[in-house]
Amino acid sequence: MALRNIVKKGDGVLQKHCRPVTEFNDRLHIMLDDMAETLRKADGVGLAAPQVGVLRRAVLVLETNVPEGEEERIVELVNPEILECSGEQSGPEGCLSYPGVYGWVSRPDHVRLRAQDRNGAWFEVEWDGLTARAFCHELDHLEGVMFDEVADHIMSEEELDAHYGKDEQNDGAES
Ligand code: NI
Prior knowledge:
Radius of gyration: 15 Å
Oligomer: single chain
Mean pLDDT: 94
Shape: globular
Largest sheet: 5 strands, antiparallel
Strand content: 25-35%
Helix content: 10-25%
Low-confidence stretches: none
Number of strands: 8
Bound molecules: nickel (II) ion
Order of helices and strands: HEEEEEEEHHEH
């Protein structure tokens, strides 16, 4: 596994529509492994292939809403599709491609989706809360959409301090 460079806002690759993955080969597996290492190092909750410069429909989401005692795990989603969403959550959201900037973003509170695994097998999952938010954020990346384009507004320092508390580290909301 190797760390990959995370593309930053301003790079045109983040504005492009991504094409489906059609070959479930070593090249895909290496990319997914590298993305997982990159995501762990960056301490984020999700990462999309275009963020490492690959215009294909593959994302990672950190499943944070796990039962107590279980480890958070990174889920690989190839060619993901939303089947159903419901509810709404509004809160701060950031992006590993746009460091230090947070927007107030509304997302569905619950999503049911399907995707292929690294070998091409389809599966379904349902997520709530932060994991649902992270997934929707990643899906937007596959359409070339950044969170600041769907945010109600970009949050000021004061607003962030008020939300998180002045001395609290804001972590876990970037993807
Ligand atoms: Ni992002």
